[in-house]
Amino acid sequence: MSLHAVRKLKVPQDLANDFNNQGFLKMKGLTVVESCTFTEGSKGSMFLEDHLLLFVLEGIYKVSFGEESFIVKKNEMVLLQKSILVGYEKSGEKENEYYLDYMMFFLKDELLTEFINMTDLQYNYPSALIPVSVRATNERLMSYIQSLKPYFKETGTLKEGLIRVKLLELLFDVADADEQFLYQFLQLKRTVRKGITEIMEQNVTNPVTLQDLAYLSGRSLSTFKRDFQAIYNTSPLRWIRNRRLDIARDMLLHTFASVTDICFTVGFENVAHFSKVFKERFGVAPSAYRYAMLNQDGENAD
Asked: Where, by residue number, does the polypeptide cross the bilayer (predicted)?
């Protein structure tokens, strides 16, 4: 089995390192990313540190979560729950010279809370939170997105208050365009308890923080730590590290993946750190472990 892996992007944090064909607006509670480029296709995976509202102006943006795939086309929007890992594949369309244009709004809980309080909405929740929701936009929404583009050229002079007002305007426009989409905003703030064991197994190789895991489990951070300790009799970070190392050990024995690919695949973000903790756990570095085990198997076969 061969494998090639790249580090999972933590967004919006890691997007700040790539200014190629991208513009940024930042303020407390919000990061907006504009991307305009020509591409026949690029793909990868990203872990969402905040809720993401994405608008496609030109081209196609495909999102995959679990076993499902969602295609977001021109004049459509998608809302994604925070603290999940999604795959993406984005491209322009041939008839438009592969031009791709989209805008991403990363929304923190505090900003959604402010919006929800301003709307004075009745909490008519949908039956369950939908991690990925795709909807059509309307002319007013697309006009709003276009009106925001000049702001990316004035990032050094813009007042934070102006950006906040513009964002709240967007959320009201989204809510007015699709009532069910509005209820998904409400649902993002709803706390529903889930099994800790299931949450841990689903996210063991994702670049999660304890806050992410607590959110996904529907618990406060302190309650999550307490409940986790009662189940596993260890700390979450220690459990995650050991599970990742166990998975890495199996991959060293049963795949031809490089140490670097294994490091990123199991959720470590630094190869040197991965090698260090692997040696602490198993007594030798990853490459030496693979060599020793394969040689041992060969000697046993003789």
From this structure: none
The rounded distance, in Å, linking the Cα atoms of 48 and 67 is 18
Phi, psi values for residue 15, rounded to 5°: -70, -25
Q: Can you tell me the distance from the alpha carbon of 243 to that of 249, in angstroms, rounded to the nearest whole number?
A: 10
**116-171 pLDDT, tens digit each:** 788 766 655 555 667 888 999 999 999 999 999 998 888 777 888 888 888 888 98
Mean pLDDT estimate for the chain: 87
- Is the pLDDT at 203 greater than 70? The verdict is yes
52: exposed, middle or buried (Cβ count in 10 Å: 0-12, 13-18, 19+): buried
Tell me the pLDDT band of 1, cut-offs 50, 70 and 90: very low
**Domains, the chain, ordered by start:** 9-188 (2.60.120.810), 196-301 (1.10.10.60)
